[in-house]
Amino acid sequence: MIHFHLDNRSTSFDASIAFDTPSGQRICTAHSAYEPDRPHEERIGDQTFTCAISNLPLVPGEYKIGVGLDVSGQEVDWVDDAARLVVIKSDYYGTGVVPTRGSFLLQNRWELNEKTAEVSLK
Fold first, then answer.
1. Diameter of the chain by CA atoms?
2. Which residues contact 44 (CB under 8 A, 6 or more apart)?
3. Do the beta carbons of residue 70 and residue 77 sit within 8 Å?
């Protein structure tokens, strides 16, 4: 949850949560502006955004979490290293192989096609 106070009436305000590597490379961002069902009615006073992330399959490692607030298209608050997230090693795919490359763990399926005719190179 992101709590904030609007001093003036506004219909244009958004919050964001960013996931970065410790060196600062952005992995992904959850932003209220990306929410298609977000209401844009005029508001003032104390506000709270709640962000539900149903699945964040990251490769094991440490990640920085940044949190920000924009009002009327201007960044009014940003906390670069608000929290840290440590993703522990696990057998995500159930294969006995622990993934270590990249940033994301993708849901994917591989299929080995039927054996094809051998080609002889001379």
1. 79
2. 6, 7, 8, 9, 10
3. no
| Total count of domains within the chain | 1
Taking the C-alpha atoms of 20, 21, 23 and 25 in order, what is their torsion angle to the nearest 10 degrees? -50
The amino acid occupying position 90 is: S
Q: Please state the length of the chain.
A: 122
In the numeric block, the tokens 């094991």 are attached to 60
* Chain segment 13-58, per-residue pLDDT in tens: 999 999 999 999 999 999 999 999 998 899 999 999 999 999 999 9
Instruction: Specify if 120 maps to a domain.
Output: no
Give me the CATH number covering residue 30.
2.70.50.60
